[in-house]
Amino acid sequence: MPKRFSLNSLNINSFAIYIASGMSGLAISTLITSSILIGIPFGLITVAIPVVLLKRKTEKQRTELQGLWPEILDHIISGLQSGLSLAETLVILSGRGPEKTRSFFLLFAQDLRTGMEFEKALQELKLRFHDGIADQVCEVLEFARLSGSRDTSLTLRTLSNFIRSDLAIRSEIEAKHSWVKNSAALAAVAPWILLLLLASQPNTRSAYTSASGFMILIVGAVLTIVAYIWMERVGKINEIPRSFA
After folding, report:
1. Is 34 left (phi over 0), alpha (psi -120 to 50) or beta?
2. Separation between Cα atoms, residue 35 and residue 42, nearest integer Å
3. Quick one: the chain helix, strand, coil %, rounded to 5?
4. What does the pLDDT look like over 68-107, one tens digit per residue?
5. Where are the domains of the chain?
6. Is 231 exposed, middle or buried (CB count within 10 Å of its CB: 0-12, 13-18, 19+)?
7. pTM of the model
8. Furthest CA-CA distance within the chain
9. 147-156 pLDDT, tens per residue?
10. Which of 15, 50, 158, 227, CA to CA, is 20 to 30 A from 181?
């Protein structure tokens, strides 16, 4: 079953993760440098680590889900060609479709069994996927149902080919962008790793534990976070628009 999170619980859990990450960064850097003043900027930077990891995890899950649509369309086309109705074909996907999407179609089947109209159930399916490709597919299916077109399989096959081509292009672009992002992330982290190594020397430690040195570290930490966020925005690939949402 697709998980539905409470916004309040999600915010509380995320806040706890950020605090734990920041405290861990502060503790480790303080232990290495023997100075809590030097450890504070590291704590600020490590707060951003869960944000980056959660964001990348979400993007990976969305990409994996989008990549399953050509297979889903193949199942739908096979069902229609075998003489099944559109509703029956979608219900079958709750048991024979890709494993990661079965829960979505299971809820769709439950909606139909409770007496919900096909159009409304299809809209609910679209909302659960919350994705531009799902919107396109659901709109084509709804149009095919209303028009009773005999070319539904051909239309779905064309849509499947289009989605495959689009996903392949996006995957190629993401692969080229990934090494740029990784290089930028390494460039942002490298000075702080160097600082950890140099902070073991008394002269360096005394320089950065002064008022001016501490301010330089705080400003550097803030600029590092800002630069990374800016890099992520510049290198971000626009999501598939939800034109039919």
Report:
1. left
2. 11
3. 85, 0, 15
4. 999 999 999 898 888 888 888 999 998 888 899 999 999 9
5. 7-66+168-234, 69-149
6. middle
7. 0.73
8. 81
9. 666 677 888 8
10. 15
